[in-house]
Design goal:
The chain has about 180 residues and is α+β, with helices and mostly antiparallel strands. It folds into two domains: about 80 residues, Alpha-Beta Complex (Outer Surface Protein A, domain 3); about 80 residues, Outer Surface Protein A, domain 3, CATH 3.90.930. It has three helices and 13 strands, in the order αββββββαββββββαβ. The strands form four sheets. A four-stranded antiparallel β-sheet has the order 11-12-7-13. A three-stranded antiparallel β-sheet has the order 1-6-5. A hairpin with a 4-residue loop joins strand 3 and strand 4. The termini are far apart. It holds the Pfam family Ribosomal_L6.
Amino acid sequence: MSRIGKQPITIPPKVEVTLGAGNHLMVKGPKGQLTMQVHPSIIIKKEDGKLVVERPNDERQTRALHGLTRALVQNMVTGVTTGYRRTLQVEGTGYRVELKGKNLVVYVGYSHSIEVTPPEGISFVVEDRNTIFHVDGLDKQLVGQVAANIRALRPPEPYHGKGIRYKDEVIRRKAGKAGKGK
């Protein structure tokens, strides 16, 4: 049996979980609300302040969906209580970011600036001399995807380390050309 799928999900006091018709799950908390359509072969039960994810049989697909569904529901509960944040850093001469309303304007060595419009539920925060910025939101998958899309605008290069990288990312550096030998 799935070790992750077996674990119950504790519902914090300010979070309201609603199981609707057709396996429709809605999680509402202090930061906002998230919804998810649960696969029909997975059963979610609410028992004394905890959510339990169960599977009716041991078929391969059902076993695969068991742990996945439990992890997705846990991410929804965490998202509506604390939210998710991905921190990125811009490194390079003249490279910077700034906020223009809700949009993020990125200057990373191109002849033009790139304006990134946040999707619904995502916000940007710029700090530290316009080189460090955060992508905030409720949905873990969406926060990660938006951060990856911004990083893809100018991925870090291995010779000088210039580009956009995650704050905790380590770039493996290359030596470059060796000098002319005597």
